[in-house]
Each structure stands twice: as C-alpha cells, then as structure tokens.
Design brief:
- The protein is mainly α.
- Helices cover 65% and strands 4% of the residues.
- Strands 1-2 form a two-stranded antiparallel sheet.
- It is globular.
Length: 272
C-alpha cells in the first residue's frame, strides 16, 4: 500500500514540474484548466495500469478498459440521480430555492478539477489503494470504515468545513463509493459516481461542492437550519444527503454482500 501511494503521489507531483518553468498566468485559460488535469489523470492511470496493478499478494487491475464506458456512464447517471434526490428533498423542506439563471462562469475549470481530476485521483487513492489493501488485510468492514474516515477528514481543511461536514462525507461518501468498488471490483463505477455527484451539485444545481462555491446553470440559495441545509459547506453537510446517499450506498453494499463480495479479515481466513 505504501509503495502504491508513493507511486500515485509521485505521478501527481510530476504534473507540477512544468509549472516551475512556465508561468500558469501566461497560458490560455482553457489550456490552464485542461492540460494539467488531463496530464494528472493520464499519469495516474498509467501508474495504476503498469505498476500498482502488479503490486501485492493478489495483483489485479482495478481499471479494466473493457467495462470503463458502461460503468462510467452508470456512475454518472447514478450520481446525478442521488444528488437530484437530495436537492429535491431540500426543496420540499424549504431549504433550497432557485432564484434565477446562473452564468456557468468558470465551468471548465471546475469540470476538470472537480469532475475529472478529483473523481479519478481520489478514487484511485482512497478506494484503489487504501481500501484495496486494508480489505486484503483487515476485511471489508474495517476497510470501509477506515477508508471512509480518511476520505471524510481529507476535506476538513476545505472552506467552511466543520467536524460534522467531515463526518457526513466519511459516512455518506465512504459507504457509497466503497460499496460501488466492492460491487464491481473496479474503480470505474465509483469514479463515475464521484464525478456525477460533484458536477450535478455544482454545475446543475448551484450548490457549493465540499465548501467550494460553483456558478451553475441556475442561481440558487440555501437557507434554514444548518443541519438541513449544510450551511456554507453545501448540502453534503446536511442530514438530507447523509440519509439519501448513505441509503443508496447501503443498497449497493447489500447487493455486494449477496454476490459474495464481503471479504473476511486475514486472521479469520487463516483460522478457517
């Protein structure tokens, strides 16, 4: 796991090297938004395909290309549906209101950073590396809890983050994305879910994404008690998202269990 993490981090760091000789401000805005993002995803993908996939006692490729289109599409659709459900419930409860049309200002930068890079790189790290090797050692339940907690508290330094927002992400996203990985035993569905979730809340419904403001298709406003609206952090930090997203994750977790995808800790397997 340590070697895999080091390889992924090195790939991400390598993307920053050209910025030591090229001033990002001198680049065309579209290039500035897309080139580093595509390089980061491309390098991490290559590292996973040709190095990480060969590590460990039970080497495996978590990024099989044959299923990528179908699983990404399914993940994007499911991510949209889940967050649309969160917004719909928030609207019914009176904490979300559309006030007009948005401008989509800066949409390309967010699409690449929040929709492409964050979804792919974070899933590789938290599910493809941390979850994978923790599960191999300590079993599915511990891997789900620990990887989810690490993922949630990786957002503690975000703008407007609170202890509750980190705990909420740890539970709702940790269960949802971990279950997607367990169900398919690949990263593509989790990547699609992650991207669909981020892009839907930011670019479609104008909700802050993990504390970061995004200008969407519409102009919207959150109000009411913070436990319902999520406050400045966004609906991810609301009880609504906690219930809806965690519920969806539990459904996938049950499906994974029925398929026999729950793995026992190594000490139980050894004893058996």
């Amino acid at each position: 796991m340590a070697v895999a993490l080091a390889l992924v981090v090195a790939a991400i760091a390598a993307v920053q090297l050209p910025l030591l000789v090229v001033d990002p401000a001198e680049l065309d805005p579209a290039l500035r938004a897309t080139v580093p993002a595509l390089l980061a995803v491309g390098l991490v993908f290559l590292v996973c395909k040709f190095a990480v996939s060969r590590l460990g006692r039970h080497p495996r490729d978590d990024l099989p290309l044959a299923i990528a289109p179908a699983h990404l599409a399914a993940g994007l659709a499911l991510g949209f549906a889940i967050f649309a459900g969160v917004v719909g419930m928030a609207a019914l409860l009176g904490v979300y209101r559309i006030t007009g049309w948005g401008t989509l200002e800066g949409w390309l930068g967010f699409f690449m950073a929040g929709g492409v890079v964050a979804s792919f790189v974070e899933e590789v790290i938290f599910r493809g590396v941390i979850f994978r090797w923790l599960e191999e050692l300590a079993g599915s339940w511990i891997a789900l809890i620990v990887s989810g907690a690490l993922f949630g508290f990786a957002h503690i330094a975000n703008d407007n983050a609170t202890l509750f927002s980190s705990v909420a992400i740890a539970i709702e996203a940790g269960v949802l994305l971990g279950a997607a990985y367990m169900l398919t035993r690949s990263l593509w569905l989790a990547v699609g879910l992650h991207a669909g979730w981020n892009l839907t809340q930011g670019l479609v419904f104008d909700v802050s994404v993990s504390g970061n403001e995004v200008d969407g298709i519409v102009e919207a406003q959150l109000s009411g008690p913070q436990w319902l609206s999520g406050g400045a952090f966004g609906l991810e930090a609301s009880v609504i998202a906690l219930v809806v997203a965690t519920g969806a994750g539990l459904v996938m977790l049950a499906m994974a269990a029925r398929r026999g995808e729950l793995i026992a800790p190594i000490w139980s397997r050894t004893a058996g």
